[in-house]
């Protein structure tokens, strides 16, 4: 993929992520940074489990409260840059609110159903509950942390983050068809997981 195609692909991905953030923040009132990051991760996880293809294909790292997309975390922690057209932070409620109207141009009907499913299943949970959901034994976060001997240091708060990337293929390693779809998607999109 050439630079121009990569830039265009990145812009389309940011539009999709941004509009998903608008959708989430318009449906969930108590959307803290941690909760938002967990819901974004869960959208990718549920999408991969269901179809073999991620909704965003972000890279997630093993952090104490991870899995975390580092770029999104940084943007939500500082002045919003990447998502400034989509989200605003409400200091009075300590939560994110939509900064624009939802645009469904980048979303299939399945994508909308997936977002509705994740909102229904996880939207009312607290950030701490969602951390527990994403850290359960045999989850991708747990497996990656354990395989790389950082599970105990993370749980004991000896370290807060790592540069370990979670291999999302482990979600579908048992399903040859979904694994093939995932590998094709990664190959065609030009992004590594």
In which range does the helix fraction lie? 40-55%
Low-confidence stretches: 4-8
Q: Provide mean pLDDT, rounded.
A: 89
Q: Which secondary-structure class do the elements indicate?
A: mainly alpha
Using only CA atoms, what is the Rg?
A: 16 Å
**Distance between the ends:** 16 Å
Percent of sequence in beta strands: 5-15%
Label the overall shape.
globular
Q: Can you give a write-up of this model?
A:
This protein is mainly α. The chain has one domain (3-189). Helix content is 53%, strand content 8%. The longest helix has 25 residues, at 3-27. Residues 4-8 have low confidence and may be disordered.
SSE order and pairing:
Layout (H helix, E strand, L loop, with lengths): L2 H25 L5 H19 L9 E3 L6 H8 L9 E4 L4 E4 L10 H14 L4 H9 L4 H8 L3 H5 L5 E5 L10 H14 L4
Antiparallel strand pairs: 1-4, 2-3
Helix pairs in contact: 2-4, 2-5
């Amino acid at each position: 993929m050439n630079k121009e195609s990569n830039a265009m692909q990145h812009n389309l991905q940011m539009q999709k992520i941004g509009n998903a953030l608008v959708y989430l923040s318009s449906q969930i009132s108590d959307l803290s940074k941690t909760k938002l990051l967990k819901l974004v991760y869960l959208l990718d996880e549920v999408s991969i489990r269901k179809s073999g293809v991620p909704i965003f294909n972000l890279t997630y790292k093993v952090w104490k409260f991870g899995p975390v997309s580092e770029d999104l975390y940084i943007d939500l922690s500082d002045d919003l840059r990447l998502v400034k057209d989509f989200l605003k932070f409400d200091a009075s409620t300590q939560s994110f609110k939509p900064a624009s109207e939802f645009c469904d141009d980048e979303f299939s009907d399945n994508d909308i159903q997936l977002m509705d499913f994740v909102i229904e299943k996880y939207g009312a949970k607290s950030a701490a509950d969602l951390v527990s959901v994403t850290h359960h034994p045999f989850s991708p976060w747990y497996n990656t942390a354990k395989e790389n001997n950082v599970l105990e240091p993370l749980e004991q708060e000896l370290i807060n983050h790592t540069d370990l990337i979670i291999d999302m293929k482990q979600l579908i390693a048992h399903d040859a068809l979904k694994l093939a779809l995932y590998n094709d998607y990664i190959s065609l999109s030009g992004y590594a997981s």
